[in-house]
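Two entries, shown back to back:
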Amino acid sequence: MARRPLPRILRNGGAQLARSRELARTAADSATDVLQPLITIARGLRRLASAARRRWTETPKDRRGALLFLVASVVLVVALAPYGPLLAVITLTAAAAWQGRDRAPREPDGPDEAQAQRLKSLYEALVPYFSIAEDPDPLYVHGGTWEKAFPAYEFDDAGRVTELVVRYPAYFTDGEARSRARIEHLLTAKAGRGREYHYTWDEEANHLTVAVLPPLPTDITAQRFVTAPGETVLGFTDPTRVQRTLPLTHGEEQRDVPPVVWRTGIRSTEPHLLVLGQPGSGTSTLLRSIALQALGDGDLVIVDGGGTGEYACLTGRDGVLAVECGLAGALASLEWAAHETERRLIAVNRARQEGRPPSDDIRRPLWVLVDRPSAFTHLAAADGRRDPQSLLQVPLRHGRAANVTVVVADQLDALDGLCDAVRQHTRARVVLGPATAGELTTVLGIAPHTTPVDQVPPGRGYARLGTGPVHRLQVPATPDPYDDATSDAHRQAVLDLLPPRTTPADGEQAAVPAKARPHTILIKTEGAPAGTRTVATEGTARLGTGTAPDGTKAVKAIPAETGSTPVEPEPVTAAAAPKRATAEAPAEAAPAGPDAVDPVPAEALAAETVPAEAVAAETT
């Protein structure tokens, strides 16, 4: 049976419906213009009826009879008077037309005298930059009119410019950053300081759009963000720069705010982050916010060079492997992180060669947060020790393949003191606090499209992820909950995000759950030198070892997983345990093998290990 063709209305229905809709809209607009007087009179009659009804309701019941008699008398006089009904209709129509008029205040057709004077001053200031002597028909000339140069403009209640469209001649060098910077600096000074302006250059149309940016919200506290695995929220930005929003809770209200999301992991193009800022600008706040988000599915190693106890709330928490404030502990933790990165690389390579997925401890993210490493640089140089920054080279270079993420925070004036590895491998950058345009260009690579201001709230700055655009950034409020100056609401918000404490801060094991208690492994070694102390790894666990007088090494380890089964003490060989030989031990004492690691002095690990006598007594 042959198929009948569709009707023409269905085949070309889209165009016809659009045309019909446009005709109907045009007819409705024409009818509205024609019937506008009737609409006005009808609106006035409705308002008069509402006023009469309200008058009748407000009249007391004992006076309503007199009011009815008065109205009836007026109607009778009008009806009996010559031309009375006609005059009454004309009067009622005029009153309805007056009551039904549009009472909204009309906007002025142009700027007032003060606004016109401000626009004229902007025009005169731009004349030296947008005019040349060879131009036969200059757009900008001294004593000229500004109407053609500024086709669109808006003002606020205070009379200051909030949005301005500037036309400029085609020969202006808008492709040069220096020329753009001169114009932006001039407009910022003339339009009003103390505000952030966003500049949009349209090179094709020779238009420059200047818009005043609203302040970013500073009342967003730390909370659970709705993100995918491997995504970290650095802060929040303008809705025009990103195409995504996050649902946030502010008290009892729910609102959507555009975030700045940093993606980490094996497939990340910017696996490491560098945060710079002035003192008190919120760099430690950003690191605490990142730490609280990373603890959801990863482990943390925190090195605090400031030594002010900003991360004391994380000590002993589940997933926090170490919180170090001293030089010896920082060296030991960063060296462990370097060897852990190497161990993960070897394990990943073996798993790929064997055709199997990596183990869970390899796929679990490891975060290394270093706050103010430049402070340790001076201490290490004075004490004749190794610079802790040199230990970050392996995690920075190979961290993406090993699922290790490094976050470094320091002061803005300490940028030159950072090592080359930190500056080369941290392609995600954040600058917090007040900074000049030159400093922002040096750190971020390009100048932002907004004008920096001198006075900014804590946690306010700019962020750029790799080669992407520069975003305005406001870090969520994540203060130290142990600080007396922290408000109760902010303190409780941070405490609610902290994981349970599995290891007491004082090192006692009485309050630790049985399944999370550290286990002890005995390692039999032959001919181990006395006094040798090492730090080794088992999975992502952290191991401290001590050597007994009889040559027996006791290794104290905290399992990487909270629910892992404690390992019973068992003798193993020295070649099966990862260890570090010390500077005092000869080179041949370190066993060869893929898992062998370099030694460190015993003094550097004194804070990380336990006495051999105590370990031997515990294992007995």
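entry 2 starts here
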Amino acid sequence: MRTEDVLAAIATGLWRWDNASGTVTLDAEAARLLGLPAKRATLTEAAVRSRFHPVDWNEVDGIINLAVAEGTLAEARLRIMDESGRVIRTVRSRSKPLTREDSYVLIGTIQEVAEPQPGTTAAHPSITGDWRRSREAFLLDAGRALAEARSTSEVLRVAASLSMPGFSPDGLAVFGVAGERLTIIGHHGHNPGDDGPFADMALDMDYPAADVVRNGRAIYLPTPQEYRRRFPATWPLVQRFDRQSWAFVPLIVAGRTIGAWMAAFKHPVAFTPDERSVLTTVARMLAQALARAGEAENERELSLGLQRSMMPTLGPEIPGMTVAARYVPTGGGLQVGGDWYDMIPLPTGSFALVIGDVQGHDVRAAGLMGQLRIALRAYASEGHRPDAVLSRASRFLYGITESYGVPDPHIEGYEDYAPRFATCLYIEVDPATGTLDIARAGHPDPVIRTADGTALIRPTAGGLPLGIEADSDYPTTRLVLDPGETIMICTDGLIETGGHDLASGWTRLRPVLEKHTDDGLEELADALVQAVHGPSSHHTTGPLVDRREDDIALLLLSRNAEGRVGPTAAPAVRRTALTIAQAEPERIAGARKQLRELLHDWADEEQIDSAVLMISEMITNVLVHTDGDALLVAEARGPLGSRRLRVEVADASDELPHRRRPGEMASSGRGLVLMQMLADAWGVDPRGDGKSIWFELSETRAADGSASSVA
């Protein structure tokens, strides 16, 4: 007797479902059970699927996929419908999937089953429906919690708190793969030390988790007897935990098994298709969460490593000077970007302070920053002057960015090969005299806080950012840092963070510099960063709509007052200096602004207006009547309320000015007349290489406290 005849006698049919070709082969009994003519047939998948109830098909589809993934039997109940959509019978299907490279073949049986009687559990679909709704709600909650976890420890904590509907495990363990070893990276429901030999084992060990990792398929052990039969070597080690059922599910990401997840139960669990589906879904979400957390932790470790290697310490103490620095990575999501600072000992015994910003906040910006920093250190250590150091650095950056050629802006990854530039400020410092030789490449100007606490932007000559042209010139500006004065240099992130531009950002920072005059540089550095990122910064947003945050690099250098170290009550002197070149007459406006900032707390507003008018005349005369540049030096000395302002404008011409009588419509000739009318004192001092025109104003107060001019 044939097998088909025997099966037909007990109302059981055979079928073969080929996923690759989309065809289903039925014997005569299987065709009859599906409501088709009782004869052998090969049908399309769509024709067979139309015979199943839609709800049942959705369930059986998930069960088949689970069986294919695990290599287990696929068992399901299916309601069969006729052409009019009426249910004619219920069948039970049991199939074994045979997997191929990218498809599978199901071979199994179909058998009619009796309909449940009224009053039985199976007759109440609401029970199954409630369980399924609970399962779906659980999976949604679990998925949301795992998606929000940002570290491996958070993922493991979420996994330990999962309460599955109807069959919650009381013991969980997550195994990870490291080379040829399997280790426990987290567990729940075990006492310390219970891991024993399972904490670190070889992948070829006779243990379910190792078997799962080797084969990539889940293992379900519903009874202790089943565990003892399949894994006799490790059963004696597991027996003491007094568990009744175990599930070991692979953790798979992008087709790669990264570990295994164990769920152990104190009560027996049959591991029905629904239960296996829940466990498999949780394992899939857990694997994705662990992979994301691992990548995030690797990125953080890489960023911190780059930051530690690229952000140097400030080195040994400098006699007579104090240095403080800060680096705050706020842009791009990385912990390191294109901003940097450095302090370089020089062969002459002096040292250099360098601060810069490479365009961008990505990994390439960080890489270019590291290369550029090394190049600057090398050029400086050779003993080159500041202008030569920046010229060589610009040629270096231009060479390494242009070596990629001119990329097509339409190709993917264009930004990775596009030329980059960098701004930089280089200061050579002589600790003995306080002399600062400054070269600037497109970077914000330094800020000087004078001995009495007044903060002023100190304009300096500058050139193009590094890397724009192969050959660029960078003029040098010389300043002297007097005892009690502090210089601040920073990247634009400190100024512009929070939607500010350079003007409004400076307005925000200036009160901080002037307020913390009695604090050390470390406290001042913290206060400056806090002003940008602290709670109060949210109420001082700038005028710009684009509020992209930027990295911050900050350097502070203070020359200690005579005979002391650290912040002191400095002498009451305030000074600023500025060079106006023949080719830069627009800087006259900057000179007027500098003088107003120097005299921001002067008692008499009319005297400030007079001083600004006089320096405009003095500088204009130099630019019009000579071929050289004008050097402005302004100094206010003395206690508040009785200070004396002295302003000098020097040039290289030997021709002395003389007073003229301008006509009513004349556009020149009023300079000396104005000085004679407005200044307390004025004069012209010949020098060996030119002359200096100067005036003085005295600050006075009336007896009632109001200001009065003596001019």
